[in-house]
Design brief:
The chain is an alpha/beta fold. The protein is built from eleven helices and eight strands. The protein has one domain: TIM Barrel. The protein starts with a helix and ends with a helix. Bound molecules: 1,4-dihydronicotinamide adenine dinucleotide (NAI) and 5,10-methenyl-6,7,8-trihydrofolic acid (MHF). This is Methylenetetrahydrofolate reductase.
């Protein structure tokens, strides 16, 4: 099923993001993770592409195919283009078609450390236009409530987002954010530009201090003072940090649901226990939202 059609059927759409393990030996653990996530009945599960931009040993198609075959849950396969040739992209798209996978998150991808890029696709927009022509996929794209880390300013970023949407994007997933005010401002701006495709809010439950540093360097998003204080106070207490991270994410989600968000995409990054804890805490709230749409 196309994810764009899931958005027509229900609100909020709930999804999880996972990544293929870096080591071949860890492949079994991802199957266990998927089994645990499947019990939570997500509308789809997204699978990131390669380890830090590498297309070698890529397990995205294999894992996506497993999710569809074994659990009948829609996979959303990420695909990045900055480091790929048209030939390589065609190869992956063909593999996706052969495996009955019809949803792709089309990304430019992080610039690899060695800056050894192929220049056949420079931006996500190029990839989206290319995939769209094939008429086989529902296409998702990333967007940035706080502006993309490389963008000169927010309005230029929005201008490029508009182009990306016009190139054939069916739905948007936001970069993670820790302050809902950025999301609400952004949603208003999209409305003013007549961008009306579904907008799913990306939420990441942060449960350790190292992750915070990683996220700031990778995404450049703002971490509220309140959250930094919690991390500092409980940095040596694993359980307390999990409690705090889950509570913080739930608080954000409840607020988003209250304002009628199209969906919540949880960047759980293979931490199925955390996903379970979040769903457990807000089960009744998620149900109310589904019923209202019936
Ligand atoms: N779930 C995931 O895996 C996610 C990954 N990302 C990462 O975010 C990064 C960016 O990916 P995308 O959003 O797909 O890239 P993009 O190509 O849409 O945008 C990248 C940058 O280029 C600018 N830009 C876009 N189109 C342009 C054009 N035609 N001419 C000039 N500048 C243009 C944008 O303003 C932005 O600063 C990647 O590092 C990606 O891997 C972001 C969100 C989610
Ligand atoms: N610029 C950018 N690149 C991305 O790949 C990306 C985003 N933004 N935003 C949305 C998601 C979030 N992503 C994330 C977020 C956190 C970790 C992380 O904490 N990684 C840890 C632990 C990994 C593990 O458990 O093995 C690390 O140390 O790499 C990884 C990917 C990937 N996505």
């Amino acid at each position: 099923m196309y994810i764009k059609d899931i958005f027509k059927e229900k609100k909020p759409v709930i999804s999880f993001e996972i990544f293929p393990p870096k080591k071949e030996s860890n492949i079994k653990t991802i199957y266990k993770t998927i089994d645990e996530l499947a019990q939570l009945n997500p509308d789809y599960i997204s699978v990131t592409y390669g380890a830090s931009g590498s297309i070698k040993n890529n397990k995205t198609v294999e894992i996506s195919s497993f999710i569809k075959r074994e659990y009948k849950i829609e996979p959303l396969s990420h695909l990045t283009c900055i480091n790929s040739s048209k030939k390589e992209i065609d190869e992956i798209l063909n593999q996706l078609i052969e495996n009955n996978i019809s949803n792709v998150l089309a990304l430019r991808g992080d610039i690899p450390n060695d800056k050894n890029i192929k220049k056949e696709f420079n931006y996500a927009e190029d990839l989206i236009r290319y995939i769209s022509k094939k008429k086989k996929f529902s296409i998702g794209a990333a967007c940035y409530p706080e502006g993309h880390i490389e963008a000169r300013n927010k309005s230029l970023d929005l201008y490029y987002l508009n182009k990306k949407v016009n190139a054939g994007t069916d739905f948007l997933i936001t970069q993670l954010f820790f302050d809902n005010k950025y999301f609400y401002d952004f949603r208003e701006k999209l409305k003013n530009r007549n961008i009306n495709i579904p907008l799913q809010a990306g939420i990441m439950p942060v449960v350790n201090k190292k992750q915070v540093e990683k996220i700031v360097s990778m995404c450049g998003v703002n971490i509220p003072e309140k959250f930094i204080k919690i991390m500092n106070k409980y940095e040596n207490n694993k359980e307390a940090l999990i409690d705090a991270g889950v509570t913080y994410a739930c608080d954000q989600i409840i607020d988003l649901l209250t304002t009628g968000v199209d969906g919540i995409h949880l960047y759980v990054m293979n931490k199925s226990k955390i996903a379970k804890e979040i769903v457990k805490r807000i089960t009744s709230i998620l149900k109310i939202n589904i019923k209202m749409e019936e």
